[in-house]
Every structure is written in C-alpha cells, then in structure tokens.
Amino acid sequence: MLLCSFLWASAFLFLKIIGTNLSPLALTAVRGLMGGALLAAWIGLHHQRVLPRGREWKDWIVLGFLQGVVPNTLTAFALTQISAGLTSLSQAMTPLIVAVLAQAVFADERLTARRTVGLLTGFSGMILLIGPAAFGNAHASLPGIASMLAVAFSYALGTLYVRTVPSPTPIRLAYGQQLFSGLPTFAAVWAMSGLGAFAGVQDVILPLALLGVFGTALPIVLYMRILSVAGPTVGSMNGYFLPPWTILLGFVFLGEALSLREMSATAIVLAGVAIVSARAGSVERLLSAFARKLAARRPDGDVPQACG
Asked: 265-268: which pairs have CB atoms within 8 A and are 24 or more residues apart?
C-alpha cells in the first residue's frame, strides 16, 4: 500500500510539470491509453493474450467505467465548481462507503469495532490534513459536491466489484481498466474537440511517459493485487496515503512548506490504516506484550505491597 500510494502520489508531480498543455479530459484519455499500452506490451512479452476473453469483456468494461470514465469525468467537472481541497476530502469518503457496502455484501468483511475505529481515525486525519483547504473556500457549489460524492461511490463500487472476479489476475484487470477508461474518454474528446485537443502532447512527452509508467501502470497493478489479497475494506484505505505522500513529495522536490498540522495529520492517518489492517487480536497482543515488558523492568521497590 505504501509503494502503491507513493507511485500514485508521484503522478501529481508529473501533472504539475505537464500543466495546462492538455485539458483534464484529454489528459485522462492519454493517461489511460498510455497506461494500457504499457501493460499490453508487458502482457504480450509474456506471451499472454492481449484481447479480453470470456467474462473479461464484462470485467474490463465495468472497471473501466466505474474506476475510470465516471470518476475522471466527474472530478474534472467538480474542480471547476469547488476547491481542490474539498474535492480530495469528498473522495476520501471512499473507504467509509466501501466498509459499509462490503459488510452488506461479503460475510468476511464485517465492520467490527476495531475497523470502525480505524476508518474513523484515518478519516479524521484526512479532515485535519485537508480541512483548512476544503472549508476555507466559501465557493462550494452543490453540483460540485454531488459530483465528488458520485465519484466516491463509483470508486467504492469498482473496488467491491474486483472482489467478485473469480481468480483475478491483477495485471490483466489493471490493463483492462486502463484500456476501457482511455478509449471511451479519447472518443469523447475527439468527438467534442477533434484531434487538436491532443496537440500539446508533443511538448510534454517525457513527463507523460513517466506519468504513464510510474503514476499509472505500476500503481494500478499493485492496487489490483492489494484488493485481491487484503480485501476491499483494507485495500480502499490506500487512498488515505495519497495526500500525505503528495505533501511530502512537494516538500522534497518543490520546496513547499511542511507544517506541524500536516505531520500530525499524517501520523493519525497512518494510525487509522494500521488499526484497520492489523490482524484480529494483534493490537491486543501488542499492548499486552508492552505491559509485560514494563512490568519486567519495574524495580522491586516499586511493586505495590498489599495492605493489612
């Protein structure tokens, strides 16, 4: 999760370099097609079938729609209506939505007290991290907020859908999602603005290539692997790591300020993810071991004596 979220967060650096050379939808199309092409090349080199087979048609189309077309389009619209901070905070609701829906769909995804505490802890860290940027802007339209809530639900449904795929192959799911996200978006941009909308690609070809490899193809493969191994509730908390990584990368590479509030919020987010992803009973065992260690180190003179 740390590696996956780090790679996804690095995309923000490349996006800042690319700037306004491409419109948001054109960039989404190029990013999807580039990520899909890279994964297709990898699949082909390993002598696997590049075209979908059997139920992969349905899986790829559903994931491309829920995890690509819908969120990318609505997020691009929302950014014209509300602040970037409020956009990020709205999208951070995805793990909470996943946890509630997963409990209703999957018997082994019960929303236990520990998981509830972890989810709320992580979300409180996100509020502390993004809150001032989200709520400090009075310009917050209802359509923009509604769009981001739809984005959170779309991501949640896509995350849950991965769990229903029998014997999932992460790299093929990632490839299918990118392919069926990039193709419809490309067609939409072409229909609305023509091929001229992609004229800026030649000016930013290097950061686009880096974005395609490190900010798109690799993290989506890792994310599909996380979902297949850890399940939707734990896997969806991957999104909680993105803002802390983005802030840290901005501090290291762009010289942006790093405040005590941001560091504290990051620690809270990490604590929330740790609580949710810990194995059952591991937190209790850790606390018990810590208590025993303290008791073993206590001097004899400090041992309380019985009265009487």
From this structure: 265/125, 265/126, 265/128, 265/129, 266/125, 266/129, 267/125, 268/121, 268/122, 268/124, 268/125, 268/128
User: What is the signed CA dihedral for 158, 241, 83, 65, rounded to 10 degrees?
Assistant: -20
In tens, the pLDDT along 186-244 reads 999 999 999 999 998 988 899 888 988 898 889 999 999 998 888 888 888 887 787 78
Q: Enter the tokens of residue 85.
A: 């901070």
Residues 158-192: pLDDT tens digits? Answer: 999 998 998 889 999 999 999 999 999 999 999 99
Q: Which two tokens stand for residue 260?
A: 């005590």
**Alpha-carbon distance 259 to 274, whole Å?**
23
Q: Counting runs of H as helices and runs of E as strands, what totals does the chain give? A: 15, 0
